[in-house]
């Protein structure tokens, strides 16, 4: 048999939780697994701005013909403006360009192939810990994957150790940095920390790859872009992966972009020719519907303002849920122990709960979170914070 030697790999540590949660018949279950936002009714809503844009597309779209390897150039322009800022000199001088990809994951896959194909021998440095799919995407592309410390066993950010480690990275290696809302920990660098990282990256001639999957979920759409814009401004060459899954709620439509910044417009054309070649081999043309929705929204001042309000509403609700959970833990004497939940940003919290506690939470209390102790705060049911806190308090006692 041809397939006789094929074994089984474990299921995806994050997506696997979706099925496990759905199969649990406990009506009081909690879904803190995969990173999706849930509204007070427990639904992951389609944003109003998205619905309006979709309606407009239904009424006005003329064709579904192929869109080209880089996707829609208007989408590319608008997403680059969202990420780099409308006033970015890189855009005016044609030194930055976006390739439309199937989600942020598609952008990461494309950039992994780009590094392997066009920059052979370069290794990549990931934060320890990082999103597990970072590990597999770059390893599968054949890159040597190394790690810089980020959050240690004390569940605290260790910038000193991160900087020391990056000092040791071979010149030319790629460093993946999370622009904001670090996944899985929720611990973000301060502006001063970013300046220090920039300094090492510049001195060591490292190539930054900034993964920007949660724009708008940390401190706001503009504030979250601070680090990305700093790097794009200060360095001649930067790679950026952007996702519209969370901030547009377009998860399953798969909308993202790989934005490349170069020192000359001519070099951008070279790089983009390679990206078009690689994308052709991966998915030929990117999916269009979700990107067309984003283009419709960002290209219309009124829709854009409505969308920005919706992003802000999601952001502030997550911040309230963080504060609410810590408050709910207070009667159990655990407010201080979990104070970091309030300091973290974005959807995720590295709770500090260990694998065993996570397992007990799941088996005894139907609370689903990733084995690393990562909880999706954006999935918390705000009306049942007390019962969540009670479950957490029970596993902390043992
Ligand atoms: C997550 O980390 O839960 C999200 O980024 C969704 C995913 O694709 O894993």
Structure description:
With 398 residues, the chain is α/β, with parallel strands linked by helices. It folds into two domains: 13-45 and 309-397, Aspartate Aminotransferase, domain 1 (Alpha-Beta Complex); 66-299, Type I PLP-dependent aspartate aminotransferase-like (Major domain) (Aspartate Aminotransferase, domain 2, 3-Layer(aba) Sandwich). 45% of the residues lie in helices and 12% in strands. The protein has a seven-stranded mixed β-sheet, sandwiched between helices. A two-stranded parallel sheet has the order 1-10. It has a two-stranded antiparallel ribbon with strand order 9-11. Helix 2 (48-60) crosses helix 11 and helix 7 (159-167) packs parallel to helix 8. It is globular, with a radius of gyration of 21 Å. The termini are far apart. The structure holds (2S)-2-hydroxybutanedioic acid (LMR). (2S)-2-hydroxybutanedioic acid binds at residues 14, 34-35, 131, 183.
